[in-house]
Amino acid sequence: MSETITPFHIAFPVDDLDAARTFYGETLGCPEGRSSDEWIDFNLFGHQIVAHYKPKSERAEEHHNAVDGHAVPVPHFGVVLTMGKWESLAERLKAASVKFEIEPYIRFKGEVGEQATMFFYDPAGNALEFKAFADMRQVFAK
Question: Which residues form the VOC domain (predicted)?
Answer without folding.
Answer: 6-133
